[in-house]
Design brief:
The complex is a heterodimer of chains A (210) and B (61). Chain A has 210 residues and is mainly α. Chain A has one domain (8-204). Chain A is 74% helix and 0% strand. Chain A contains 10 helices and no strands. Chain A has helices at 2-17, 20-24, 28-34, 38-68, 75-97, 99-105, 116-124, 128-134, 145-178, 189-204. In chain A, helix 4 (38-68) packs parallel to helix 7. The longest helix of chain A is centred in the C-terminal third of the chain and has 34 residues, at 145-178. The longest helix of chain B has 25 residues, at 2-26. Helix content of chain B is 41%, strand content 0%. Chain B has 61 residues and is mainly alpha-helical. Chain B contains 1 helix and no strands. Chain B has one helix at residues 2-26. The radius of gyration of chain B is 19 Å and the shape is elongated. The chains are: A mainly alpha (210), B mainly alpha (61). Chains A and B meet through helix 3, helix 5 and helix 6 of A and helix 1 of B.
């Protein structure tokens, strides 16, 4: 029961209260760029969740291999190559099976490679103990290899879904903004960033729950 | 031995990336989708799409 509760805390914290876009500002480029259209935002969110989760899965075991070979300093370059390969794979799948999504995503699909969210999560999950300590969950669970893996994957999924929820919500708000009278100086990215700041304030207000 | 591991790891990952990149470049694009124009190849451009019909200039109110 303790494990399930802890997993739930990690998941909800990663997704909502510690939402990666709203609390750290990572991935803001694609967040502002793709959120003009709800369909594109949805597609981008799904693509990112997939890439984050798969990259984390591969990176977790890759980190073990690098540690075993005593070449941990190769971590960043290896993770970048893994992410780049996965993005190429996703682009290939989207191009082949979802042509309309491919047309609407435009330059943002290959740009997932340089999306800080993916690299941040892959590097974070290599140090699960720090994540758990930060959430006040460090204890007997933190020393178990299987639970570490489980926590890492739940954290990766929660972060990816956090980005997804955030971008889809924001695209909905932006649709409303398009029909609202906005001051000339705020038009476009200006009002988008102000709205993002307000969303961030709302989210950080929930931080004390867990 | 350590240098050999570094070389091996790099070769494997670069090789996998090159293979997937090659397969991706060979995958046929959807109809009417051309290459992105040069001015669209930057992170800050928010109005460019892959489909030529979707290329539009930002409207001002």
């Amino acid at each position: 029961m303790e494990v399930i509760t802890s997993l739930l805390v990690v998941f909800i914290t990663a997704m909502i209260t510690n939402n990666i876009v709203l609390t750290t500002g990572y991935g803001i480029c694609s967040y502002i760029g793709v959120s003009k259209n709800r369909k594109s935002a949805f597609g981008m969110g799904v693509a990112l969740v997939f890439v984050v989760f798969m990259a984390s899965l591969v990176s977790y075991f890759l980190e073990m291999l690098l540690v075993a070979l005593n070449i941990e300093f190769m971590q960043t370059i290896c993770f970048i190559l893994v992410i780049a390969s996965l993005v190429q794979l996703v682009e290939m799948i989207v191009k082949k099976f979802l042509p309309s999504l491919y047309k609407s995503l435009g330059i943002y699909l290959p740009l997932i490679t340089t999306n800080c969210v993916v690299l941040y999560v892959t590097k974070q999950i290599c140090d699960v103990e720090t994540i758990l300590t930060g959430l006040g969950l460090s204890g007997s669970l933190a020393n178990n290899g299987f639970f570490n893996f489980l926590f890492a994957m739940v954290y990766a999924l929660g972060t990816g879904l956090g980005y997804f929820v955030c971008i889809v919500l924001f695209s909905t708000i932006r649709t409303k903004i398009d029909y609202s009278p906005v001051k000339r100086g705020f038009y476009g990215a200006g009002i988008a960033l102000v709205t993002t700041a307000l969303m961030a304030l709302t989210i950080t207000g929930l931080a004390g729950i867990f | 031995m350590r240098y050999l591991y570094i070389l091996l790891v790099l070769i494997v990952f670069v090789g996998v990336f090159c293979l997937i990149w090659y397969l991706n470049s060979r995958t046929k694009k959807p109809d009417d989708c051309g290459e992105l124009p040069e001015e669209c190849k930057h992170c800050s451009v928010t109005i460019c799409k892959n489909h030529p019909k979707d290329q539009k200039t930002e409207e001002k109110k």
